Amino acid sequence: MRIVVDAMGGDHAPDAPVRGAVLAAEECGYDIILVGRQDEINKVIAETGYKGDKLKVVDASEVITMEEPAAVSVRKKRDSSIVKAFEIVKKGEADAFVSAGNTGAVVCAATLTLRLLEGIDRPGIAVLFPALSRSCLVLDVGANIDPKPLHLLQYGIMGDAYSRHVLGKKDPIIAMLNIGEESTKGTDFQKEAHMLLSKSKLNFIGNLEPKEVYKGTADVVVCDGYVGNVFLKVTEGFAYAAAELIKRELKKSNFITKIGALLTKPAFMKIKKRVDASEYGGAPLMGIDGRVIISHGASNAIAMKNAIRAAASVTDHHVNAHILEELSGKI
To answer: Strand pairing of 31-36 and 136-139?
Structure first.
């Protein structure tokens, strides 16, 4: 398994990507190619004390920052870590790509370099949400903010393939995120997408309100990238606020309450691990003719290690081959 990592991507680069790569190399034995400013990468590797032979460094002098416009940066910064990493994948020298960098630039570079799967018009980012009764795959959460109804049908097919072959779900339940359950709800775009999904051979149950995602009502929920990204960030914000409020109240509580908090700490830690984004690592960019994992910009070393593991899992399960199979049978 050969994974190429954008060592300059993310808020904590190159420290987090490099340390994550070291952990993945030690624990999983993957061959990892780190792309970025060579001196900075080697410095972090030296700090970890890693002495193995699973890491390779490829120099890239430029960095695409989070604030830069995606398409312009990809075309102008040909020696950036993102562009050079994708060239390595295109040449067949790596099986998958991982980055916590500029999402727009990753999507743009992936589309231009690796191209789209035949039958897919736009890529989508799929995020796995922990829910009460089952995990729920939501896509798109930011790759395509102005899609056509057909794109949501394609997201449903890709989500179905991922759920079946990576998550092991036999007959995934598909739904569309909307403001109400009735088929008449939403914009003209959503109504047309609903019609296309209903006519497909997917196990489509109709519209789903956001609260139902957390209950685990569906296995796959499709939406446009704008709505999906807002949903993702609201979820992140609420999770942080809820945890912080609990901490503050416990600190202000009396002695008996604090004893109770200590006794329930193991349960809280299990919940934290289940909802911790770093445990999931990254989100697959689906629809690309290659394997691409996009991590959160704030990813730490653990998150990057798990993103590399996610890239290996997508490769192992031949997700793209299954998507192509389903495209011919689900429409």
So the answer is: unpaired
CATH assignment of 126-252, among 3.60.10.10, 1.10.569.10, 3.60.140.10, 3.40.718.10: 3.40.718.10
- The 10s digit of each residue's pLDDT in 270-302 is 766 665 565 667 899 999 999 999 999 999 999
* E strand intervals along the chain: 2-6, 31-36, 55-59, 96-99, 124-129, 136-139, 174-177, 204-208, 220-222, 282-286, 292-295
The span from the CA of 222 to the CA of 176, in Å, is 5
Better-scored residue on pLDDT, 225 or 134: 225
pLDDT of residue 262 exceeding 90, the answer is no
* Beta carbons within 10 angstroms of residue 272's beta carbon: 12
46 Cβ contact partners less than 8 Å away, ≥ 6 residues apart: none
- Domains of the chain: which residue ranges? 1-120+280-324, 126-252
**Which residues lie below 8 Å from residue 16, measured CB to CB, with a gap of 6+?**
10, 100, 299, 300, 301, 303, 304
Per-residue tokens: 244? 């912080």
> Is residue 279 helix, strand or coil?
helix
pLDDT digits (tens, 9 = 90+) for 155-204: 999 999 999 999 999 999 999 999 999 989 999 999 999 999 999 999 99
Q: How confident is the model over 100-151, as pLDDT tens digits?
A: 999 999 999 999 999 999 999 999 999 998 888 888 999 999 999 999 999 9
* Residue 39: half-sphere exposure toward Cβ, Cα within 13 Å: 1
